[in-house]
Amino acid sequence: MKRLICVTLMMMLAAAMLIPMTVSAADPVLIVNAETMTLTAPYQMGSNGAASNGRVIEFPGDGTTSTGTATIKLDDLANGKYDIILYYFDENDGQGTFKIEVGGKTVLEFKAKDDLPSGSADAATYTNTVKQGMWMESVDIKKGDELKLSYTQNGDQERGRVDKIEFYKADPATTARPTTTAPPTTTRATTTRATTTTGATTTTSGGDGATTTNAAATTAASSNDDGGGLSTGVIIGIVIGAVVVIGAVVFFVMKGKKKS
User: How much is the pTM?
Assistant: First the structure.
């Protein structure tokens, strides 16, 4: 019995040491809010309370069958490989097609056909490519490459609403896949980082009806202040460590009583 208790305590101590390392995931190194991208009609900016900044890009609700695009130069990324997550809305009133290209190469093309339980762009239909089982991993990006998002409406009311695109430094040895599910913010097991936005947004309308929006992307920069918070992994480790200590105390107290 004593041996079993000792083995159990050792396993709990090992778990307490390992959990903070295995559950941690990287923060995004770049967040591109869709409304800061350069748009071509029929894409336009719109307001939406379920989006991270209360803004999205979307098609007008006229059931068109045309294709709109949103582009941005990735000047804030260094040369390297990155994992990419697209945050968008998938309503149950249509099935349009998204395509994402980086540096002229298609990295993902899919139909928004999950038909989440609402015909509106709200918390019920807010999702991301990781949640839907679509991975854009280890994408080779060179500084200044163009990211191009295309959406083709299928003559229905699926309006191709997009909130943001996140980039993570690909490092399979140390970085776990992000598995964000809750709109519109992301909780990660890591130190909180501050986001810095540079540049202003300007909108112009051309004679062809196209709306062009220019602004700098939002970059996720490391902050010296972690906001006083602890990562999920550290908290779990502390809890298990406390359980180990309490278990050890109880064990030795009971052992002493038995001897007396």
Answer: 0.61
